[in-house]
Design a protein that fits this description.
Helices cover 25% and strands 21% of the residues. By secondary structure, it is α/β, with parallel strands linked by helices. The strands form 3 sheets. Strands 3-2-1-4-10-6-11 form a 7-stranded mixed beta sheet, with helices on both faces. Bound molecules: uridine-5'-diphosphate-glucuronic acid and manganese (II) ion.
Length: 242
């Protein structure tokens, strides 16, 4: 089966290195289609160049967030994932869907595990919240509860990178809300997921094959430095205006 790896992304100085690292991981994965949903009014050239250089089958979608979500605390990557879902519904009948932020780190083993997802599979995600991990709790081969430092009145307190879904279940009823912190839970509820349907992976959720890594934000250059020197700077490909 094909894996559809859905990555929301947006321009910032860390974007090129994050996507380069992720893309170079995906290049080792057989039968994977990379969907990059770009938070921009037109698809950016620097993202396209990375996509093409991987040689992978890809889809590049322009999916800017609605204007109201500009600011600081807003649901991130939702317009992007919704656009990818709609593309998938229109173009793909079978395969496995997996959401991965552009800044995550993934072990190649994970892809082989999620490839056989029947409905929804789940597994631990490292470097999440106060506990340093978010993981389903498995008893006798079944998911019975969740270990997560922010339960937040969620039925499925999991991270976006902690589950994969068989495309068969991506019907028109499936959606993701613009509610920060509840994107995963509401998405899974819209699938009609029940606890007993969940397929635990990664040795009954005892191993970590994906991490919610974060890169330290780029520090703005100190413009008090010699202005003459600044004009002499070459134009770098990946330089994003601040
Ligand atoms: C965490 C989860 O890992 C996300 O899947 C979830 O969407 C997010 O929380 C949330 O609940 O808002 P976190 O690492 O805190 O994510 O956030 P980012 O990595 O900054 O953003 C998540 C994804 O959205 C990334 O792939 C990022 O490139 C993208 N994004 C972020 C945009 O497309 N536009 C933005 O303005 C910001
Ligand atoms: Mn992230």
């Amino acid at each position: 089966k094909m894996i559809y790896y859905v990555t929301p992304t947006y321009p910032r100085p860390e974007q090129v290195p994050e996507l380069t690292r992720l893309g170079h991981t995906l290049m080792h994965v057989p039968r994977i289609h990379w969907i990059i949903a770009d938070d921009q009014p037109i698809c950016s050239d620097q993202v396209l160049i990375i996509l093409r250089r991987t040689g992978l089958p890809y889809t590049h979608i322009s999916s800017p967030k609605p204007y109201v979500y500009r600011g600081s605390n807003f649901p991130r990557g939702v317009a992007n994932r919704r656009a990818a879902l709609s593309w998938l519904r229109d173009n793909v009948q079978e395969g496995v869907l997996y959401f991965g932020d552009d800044d995550n780190t993934v072990d190649l083993q994970l892809f082989e595990e999620i490839r056989n997802t029947k409905k929804v599979s789940m597994f631990p995600v490292g470097l999440i919240g106060d506990y340093g991990i978010s993981a389903p709790i498995v008893k006798d081969g079944k998911v019975v509860a969740f270990f997560d430092s922010w339960p937040g009145s969620r039925k499925f307190p999991v991270d976006m990178a902690g589950f994969a879904v068989n495309m068969k279940y991506i019907t028109s009823a499936v959606t993701m809300p613009f509610i920060a912190g509840h994107e995963e839970d509401r998405f899974l509820l819209s699938l009609g997921l029940k606890l007993e349907d969940i397929e635990p992976l990664a040795d009954n959720c005892s191993r970590v094959f994906v991490w919610h890594t974060k890169t330290v934000k780029f520090k703005k250059p100190n413009l008090k430095m010699n202005i003459k020197k600044l004009h002499e700077l070459p134009k770098y490909d990946s330089f994003v205006k601040l």
